[in-house]
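Work Package 3 (structural annotation) set out to generate three-dimensional models for the target panel prioritized at the project kickoff. During this period the team completed the workflow that converts sequence records into discrete structure tokens, so that structures can be stored uniformly alongside our sequence database. As a representative example, we reproduce one entry of 181 residues exactly as it appears in the project archive.
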Amino acid sequence: MSKKEIITGIIVLLIISMTSGCLLSWVYGATKPRIDEQKKIEAARINREIFPEGAKFSDTITENGMTYVEVYSADGGLAGRVFDVTSAGYGGPVAVKIGIDGELRIKGVRILSHTETPGLGSKISDIGFLDQFKDKFGNTLCLKKDSAEGTVDAITGATISSRAVADGIKKLQEKLSRAEK
């Protein structure tokens, strides 16, 4: 190969790379508002799923290291809050939405995202597993295999993933209990 062919090849690759980068940036900019809107719609759907009796939901609030949405009943009173919590699972972070009423009892739990093992740890998203947390408080939120007071069955073969969800909920509840005092 001659020097001229090498320089021509480099210039062609540079032009292709720059064009691809610009196009990718343009597509990202054009689709970002729609993606953000879809994320808001999905978050609102999950909030209503967790708190079906909620008549009104506030905008997202970030305060004291916690991110949440306030839920109001039909009469305008505060019915509870829906928190976004992240805990460490087997395959990485597990993002969880947790609904808590005024008495700090769990109203509902939904998994937003995770990187757990498909077929095993990914079962933390199953409604059957998540519904075990409803109306629980304190040590009853622990896995049965971790505490005599625990009432939550871990997913077979995915104890670390199950524990990630349970620990995230329990830590949030403890933090809220301390804040109320």
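The longest helix spans residues 3-50.
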